[in-house]
Amino acid sequence: MSSVREMLRRRERASRLWKPCAGCGLRVEVEVLAGNLGVCPLCGHHHRLAPQERAAWLFDAGTFRPRRHRMRSTDPLGFYAHSDDGAGPGPEEPVIYGPGNIAGRRCVAALMDFFQAGGSLGAVAGELICRAGELARSEELPLLLVTASGGARVQEGTLALLQMAKTMVTMNELHEEGIPVIALLCDPTCGGVAASFAYAADFILAEPGALICFTGPRVAEQAAGIRFPEGFARAERLLERGLVDMVVPRREQRRVIGDLLAFLEGRG
Description:
It is a single chain. The chain has nine helices and nine strands. By secondary structure, the protein is of the alpha/beta class. The strands form two sheets. Strands 3, 4, 5, 6, 7, 8 and 9 form a seven-stranded mixed β-sheet that branches. It has a two-stranded antiparallel sheet with strand order 1-2. Helix 4 packs parallel to helix 5 (about 160-175). The longest helix has 19 residues, at about 160-175. The chain is globular. It starts with a helix and ends with a helix. About 35% of the residues are buried.
């Protein structure tokens, strides 16, 4: 029995030190991966990041100041109340937003968190995207959207679907007032997010290998009854077809976004 416990302790310790790469399948030291901005040094696979991890290197030190809020999604369909854990109201919201500087240029940024309920777009997440847009408009600053989402939050039913229209109203208001919008589409950007504000930007960037689509390849193949080619709905394939403007490796994103902000500032 003690040998089993020791084996489990060793496995737990190893899991904290090493992480399997979804790109090449090899194990990479967690410390090395973190030092490389979540990019596998062996194959270049871009691992998913939480917003706080991304903000630490994307923004100038100490300049990104997320706005506080106390909103939480309700449970209109009784989904959480009847779940196994009876958790009640929905999970933490997958959006943080606030002003910040990138390479010395000011902007307002909204970052999505795929680790929170799959980055799903519910009533509160939609409200936070709109508040980010309103802040950009009031401060007359460009809006940066960093998306990572599986789509609308089905647990909120129609209320979640309405966020597509709601966020698009905000995007339209920004366009009418000449406030530029930059979108960085990360893995994955799917469903209602891809079908609304993620693609309403003036400049659309994407991370290498990011899955960007309305419907995922497996579901689309089942519905169409055909086999899609390798790389279907990946960032590089969308770039070839003009659906994104640039595929930007993570180490270059700060420079590229900073250059875009400088260009937009010069036009103003």
